[in-house]
Amino acid sequence: MEIQRLIRLIGLIGDEAGDTPFTAPERETARRALIDRGAEAVPPLLAVLWDDHGPLEWFEAAWLLRRIGAPALGPLTAALAAAPSHVALVRARWAFAGLDVPAAAFGPALRHPHPRVRETTAWALQRRGAKALCLVPALLPLLDDPDHGVRVSAGGALRTMSPGVVGPLRRARRTPGSSARLRRGALAALAAVGGPAALDERDIAAVRRLIAVRARDEVPEPIRVCAPWFALRTADQDAVLAAFGLSAPEPVTMRLGASAWQHDAHAARPGHGACSRVYVSPALDGWTLVFGSPFQDAHRADGGISGPVIRRRCAELSRRFGEAHWYGMRCAGEWAAWCFGERGAIVRHYDAADPERASGPPHPWEPPGPLPHEADFPQGSFDGIDASDAEAFLASYEEVRRETGIPGPYPATDVAARASVSPAALGPRTRVTGRAVLALTACGRAHGHPPGALRI
To answer: CATH top-level class for 2-211?
Structure first.
């Protein structure tokens, strides 16, 4: 009864007679008392964790279980295996991952027979990073776990432990009898921890052989566009590398090049992860595409995408290659921009985010009708529509758009398809000449390739 009373007190339910709620200092005293009860308080708190109508919010119960620590470890492990619903599992995972225990205490759970427990335990270790290095011997076998989710979580945990995990991962790659799946997982973790610098000579040679084999008969695939890129009317890759000041070109598959660009474009880490390398495509229907941040403009406060910078770059490149295009686009497609340079002059620059500073008249390659920034719905078009009902709002949007003739989203890839080559439309019919490469920028020459596992 005392524990139940403490739980009600923490939940501001009031005392047993239903009098006024308890004060904040009384609640905090009750929290400390409940935590001090240790193992005795765990079962009632677990019951609250799964009860949406209990005297306490689930996250308060989870927080208390975290603070109780070691006495809650075993019961929460069992709760993960027995969770009756996805909601219950999420709550148990949150409590389990933040338990106030040393990393080594999670070791037995990594060997639990239920894959849900093994996966959650590996996931919990990701937030502990190098503090969990003592569990590397228990994590490495999970790279060969029969459950995909366990393998992913184990790899994620190992990647947070750099640089101390490099040696064990290399040894796992060389241990006689290791499965191919474990060796692949260890290789991916090494790449994520330190990039090519973390691989030894044998692994680098193996990766290059695999790239060479897969590149031989590679069919172009559409690229999910999420950042600006250049298109140059040339098949002279060496000239393109020189024009952008790139060096140390490493032959890759087109898939790997696109994977590197997407990885780097979304890099959230500080430093030079987004500006160290560039993917230069082979000639695609006579155009070479350059993906990434090849210029020092990437370090400007405006990100190097201001109008004058783009126009200057396109003019310089078109003077060398005859035609040079730049396209801008975000993942969600809410921004579109393009710049066309011909023989040293800018014939058109349009940016939907800054249309007042457009340069040159509308180009025949642009969409017919209003440009993206010109779409203007009549006043009252959506009166009576519940904006929180996404499905109903989208249906109304499409209906109004058709009735008024307002064009739909017109991404830069559609303009590129008319003007040069669209990365989003690459496929078996695309004519390919030469090889794809990853090349280093000035930042890359100073800092090397950013870490990260890429698709080959």
So the answer is: mainly alpha
What are the structural domain ranges in the chain?
2-211, 221-366+411-447
Amino acid at 130: A
Cα 173 from Cα 206, distance rounded (Å): 12
Q: What is d(CA 398, CA 382) in angstroms, rounded to the nearest whole number?
A: 11
Q: Which tens digit of pLDDT belongs to each residue from 125-172?
A: 998 989 999 999 999 999 999 999 999 999 999 988 878 899 999 999
Helices 86-97, 115-126: axis angle to 10 degrees equals 40
Q: What would the pLDDT profile of 335-369 be if each residue is shown by its tens digit?
A: 889 999 999 999 999 988 787 788 888 888 887 76
Say if residue 378's pLDDT is above 70.
no
Max CA separation in the chain (angstroms):
87
Give, rounded to a whole angstrom, the gap between the first and last alpha carbons of the chain.
61
Query: What CA–CA distance (Å, rounded) separates 40 from 90?
Result: 23
Distance CA 289, CA 422 (A): 10
Per-position b or e across 244-259, b if 16+ CB within 10 A of its CB: bebeebbbbbbbbbbb
pLDDT of residue 204: 85
30 and 37 in contact (C-beta within 8 Å)? no
Cα dist from 228 to 61, 73, 224, 329, whole Å = 47, 48, 12, 6
